[in-house]
Write a structure and sequence with these properties.
The protein contains two helices and 14 strands; from the N terminus they run αββββαββββββββββ. With 323 residues, it is mainly β. The chain has one domain: Beta Barrel (Outer membrane phospholipase (ompla), Chain C). The strands form two sheets. The protein has a twelve-stranded antiparallel beta barrel with strand order 1-2-3-4-5-6-7-8-9-10-11-14. A hairpin with a 5-residue loop joins strand 8 and strand 9. It starts with 19 loop residues before the first helix and ends with a strand.
Length: 323
């Protein structure tokens, strides 16, 4: 759902083709390959591997499979989503993961739009035109950690080599997206509980649903991410806000096609009310020329003319389980 990514710093809060099956296996097995690095609340070192449930006096049993690799599965309902020329409503399953391990700062999710077989018209059946997998992975490597130096500059506390990969596993190239953003990332110190990150990418576009910019470098993305803990409650729950704004620009896609644009903006506002495992999600997302479709232009997909509605609000609601 979160296309692109959300911030990476919370657990009980939100914060060329590649083989999708290998992607899923890597995401699921990653936490089992690492050892714990964090200390317990009493200042004593946690013992055992991150996936271990063994409890000792010094290391009580964790409620989660890993102390750095955060995971959740969420059932999501969406309304008026505007990444394409026509608005989409859907109900689907999402697996989300994120965390920090040494120099690696990781976020990603895998959506399964056809899991329930309900929602939009492409959701039912195995051999129809619907995509079974939509995935996004966003790794960042800390230059501070890799160099062993303090590279802070003014309010910028940390620098990263940053990437953002998006893949839609459509049934053929005209129904598939494969996009790679690469660039430089940063964390910005605010002196408050507000976490802010800024990433700047260049975009390489492989498949793009048959669009004219396939197999080319085409534009840039400026991405601002922000998150803030809003409240903690006596029942053990917490309320968290997380958001991001993506500004895509410098593309040539709209030069010769009046139904497309060279820029787009997506601004996402998410609120998560969560317990140790149970979580509730509400998201309001604003699209301006979503998916670089020109709002108000007229198209015809052999079913009569319709007006593109790529500017406006879309919404997501979800119930999930953190583990």
């Amino acid at each position: 759902m979160f296309n692109p990514s959300m911030p990476l710093v919370w657990r009980t809060n939100l914060h060329a083709s590649v083989m999708p099956c290998a992607l899923i296996a890597t995401a699921l097995l990653l936490p089992l390959s690492a050892h714990a690095e964090q200390q317990s609340a009493e200042g004593q070192a946690a013992s055992g591997e991150t996936a271990s449930y063994e409890a000792t006096d010094d290391s009580p049993r964790s409620a989660y499979l890993s102390d750095w690799y955060n995971q959740n599965v969420t059932v999501i309902g969406s309304k008026n989503i505007r990444f394409g020329p026509q608005q989409i409503d859907d109900i689907y399953l999402e697996y989300e993961f994120f965390g920090r391990k040494g120099p690696l700062d990781l976020y990603g999710y895998i959506d399964m739009p056809k899991f329930f077989g309900i929602g939009n018209a492409a959701d039912s059946g195995i051999f129809d035109n619907g995509s079974p997998i939509f995935a996004e992975i966003k790794p960042r490597l800390s230059l501070n950690d890799l160099s062993g130096r303090d590279l802070s500059l003014g309010p910028i506390s940390e620098w990263y080599l940053a990437a953002n990969w998006i893949y839609d596993w459509g049934h053929n190239s005209d129904n598939r997206q494969n996009t790679l953003y690469t660039g430089l990332g940063s964390d910005i110190e605010t002196g408050t509980p507000l976490d802010v990150s800024f990433n700047f990418y260049g975009k390489y576009q492989w498949e793009n649903y048959g669009a004219d910019n396939e197999n080319s470098w085409d534009g840039y993305r400026a991405q601002l991410e922000y998150s803030y803990p809003l409240a903690s409650f006596d029942n053990g729950a917490s309320l968290f806000y997380a958001g991001f704004t993506n500004y895509d620009f410098g593309s040539d896609l709209g030069d010769d096609n009046p139904s497309r644009t060279n820029e787009s903006v997506v601004a996402t506002n998410a609120f998560v009310y969560s317990f140790t495992h149970l979580r509730f999600l509400a998201v309001a997302r604003y699209f301006h020329n979503g998916g670089q479709w020109n709002d108000g232009s007229t198209l015809n997909f052999d079913e009569g003319d319709f007006s593109v509605r790529s500017t406006g609000w879309g919404y997501y609601f979800g119930v999930g389980w953190q583990f």
